Amino acid sequence: MRFIVALQEYHLEYLKDKDTRFIQELEDYVKNHLNQPLTLQVLSEEFNKSSSYISKKINMVLGRSFTDYLNVQRINMAKVLLKESDYTIKAIGIEVGYISMRHFLRTFKKI
Predict the structure, then answer these.
(1) Helices 2-32 and 40-47 meet at what angle, rounded to 10?
(2) pTM of this prediction?
(3) Per-residue pLDDT tens for 30-89?
């Protein structure tokens, strides 16, 4: 009986590590492609996983939706660029992936 419990615990830990590795790869990809259009479909094609699978893993591991995660990453990068560059606000918005200046400013204020 102890063997079965130990095996189940090992399997759960393996799955948790696997999810963590996948999310780390996904986070790295997102950070390196913030200025490009990023959707669940784009990630699905890049990682050869379904968009619903990716969405569920993001929600489960990061505790937020993909859209919320992406907006936080983009705004955090915008804050860095505001402090460390001479770019205009409009250029920063474009650099972090916002096409609409209005949407960028609204999201920036919200986050």
Answers:
(1) 120
(2) 0.83
(3) 999 999 999 999 999 999 999 999 999 999 989 999 999 999 999 999 999 999 999 999
Q: What is the CATH number for 31?
A: 1.10.10.60
Find the domain containing 6 and state its range: 2-110
If DSSP states are collapsed to H, E and C, what string results for the chain? CHHHHHHHHHHHHHHHHHHHHHHHHHHHHHHHCCCCCCCHHHHHHHHCCCHHHHHHHHHHHHCCCHHHHHHHHHHHHHHHHHHHCCCCHHHHHHHCCCCCHHHHHHHHHHC
64: left (phi over 0), alpha (psi -120 to 50) or beta: beta
User: What's the domain count of the chain?
Assistant: 1
